[in-house]
Amino acid sequence: MPGQVAVRDLGRMDYKPCWDLQESLFQPMIQAKIARRNAGLGPQDPSDDPALALPTSHMLLVEHPHVLTLGKSGEETHVVASTERLAELGVAYYPINRGGDITYHGPGQLVGYPILDLDQFFTDIHRYLRTLEEAVIRTCADWGVEAGRIDGLTGVWVEPDAGLKARKICAFGVKCSRWVTMHGLALNVNTDLAFFNLIVPCGIADRGVTSLAQETGSEVDMAAVKARLLAHLAELFAWQRIA
Question: Is this prediction's pTM over 0.90?
Answer without folding.
Answer: yes
